Amino acid sequence: MIFKVFYQENANEVPVREKTKTLYIEAQSERDVRQKLKERNFNIEYIHPLEGAHLEYEKQNPNFSVLEI
Q1: CATH (domain of 17)
Q2: How far apart (Å, rounded) are the C-alpha atoms in residues 10 and 48?
């Protein structure tokens, strides 16, 4: 399953909406996503599973790229 992750690059800073970034990652569950990203110093705000029409919509984004870990 593909997940869309909303995060801040530095976990030590206060989250600011304008600094929120997104990435796409393939994983089995939300827990698996967190496990794969734990080595990075991200402040994960939200993890959203993508499927069906929502996934197809996201694939139309020119910045859509699934992170390989």
Answers
A1: 3.10.20.730
A2: 20
pTM metric for this prediction? 0.89
Q: CB under 8 Å to 48, separation ≥6 — which residues?
A: 3, 4, 5, 6
* Helix H or strand E encompassing 37: helix 30-37
Which residues contact residue 1 at a Cβ distance below 8 angstroms, ignoring those fewer than 6 apart?
A: 26, 27, 28, 29, 49, 50, 51
* Count of domains forming the chain: 1
> pLDDT-based confidence at 16, cuts 50/70/90?
confident
Domain of residue 17, residue span: 2-50
Distances (CA, A) of 6 to 16, 47, 49: 12, 6, 11
Neighbours of 16 (CB within 10 A): 8
